[in-house]
Amino acid sequence: MSSYTTTLNLLFFYMTWSTLVWSHSPLRVEIFGTAAFRLAFFVIPSVVFFLFDVLTPSAAVVVKEHGEAGLPGGRKRFKLRLKEFKIAGWSLLNLGLALFTQATLEWLFTRVLRVRSAIKVSASLPTPWTILQDIFTGFLFREGLTYTMHRYALHHPSSYLTKLHREWYHDLSLPFPLTAHYDHPLVYLAHRFVPTYLPAMLLRFHMLTFLLYTAAVSVEETFAYSGYTFMPTSFFLGGIARRNEEHMIYLGEGNFGPWGILDWILGTSIGVTDIEEDVRNEAHDHQLGQKVRQAMDANARKVHVDTLRRNGRKR
After folding, report:
1. Whole-structure pTM value
2. CB atoms near residue 132 (< 10 Å)
3. Is residue 102's pLDDT more than 80?
4. Would you say residue 58 has pLDDT above 90?
5. What local confidence, expressed as pLDDT, does residue 288 receive?
6. Are the C-beta atoms of 91 and 38 separated by less than 8 Å?
7. pLDDT surpassing 90 at residue 308
8. What residue spans define the domains of the chain?
């Protein structure tokens, strides 16, 4: 029965996807699809987190890794300045700039140069193995490009972008919601857009693969730059968040890649945010979760026994 239901769901999805592809231009499918996934997995949750920090700082400070210093207003949590809202506004504008740049590139490829699109938009569906393989390879490319751009273009003494990056992004003391996309627009394109979009373009992702890839990147950016102590997984997102915080605290002396792989290999890791530390933190969180569940189970058994005893005495 479950196999029959799965087949029907896949058939329905294929029919819906085929109808969408056949009824709209590839450029429209790519841009509107990318915008929808960015909106769902980054903009909406990040705006909610930002408003939570701004409107209820007393509650937000409890779940901040660095306490009051991690709030949008810093230690002056009840004296928000226009600066914090400008940061949020620039972040959203940069995200719009990335979508515009993506649309411009696709228009140049398909309408001017008359070559195939960067992202493959077709009615055929990729296999699950192809999707996973492409996403994994894309993230590896993204790690290498981000590290290279960040270290040699944004933190090199002779680079023009270094000054802009220092005056914009490194003017922040700590990350808070929406700051994943905050920087000077030129720096943003070099540091965020190029390392994210170029792997998908070189590997020519299928549109469905690209949407899942975009969702994964968006979730990473949402949580890793939120400043919160809770993460869906401490090993990946928690490690990325800690490395980014150390990068800001030490004013860009290291931790140039999001995953920390190249930092670990090339000796540019700073603080205590290496891969071994991520593994220990993940193991600690796992053990802590087990202990909490065991304590809750033991407490439930104790309450059950006490209830039985009281009922026995009443009889």
Report:
1. 0.84
2. 13
3. yes
4. no
5. 41
6. no
7. no
8. 2-230
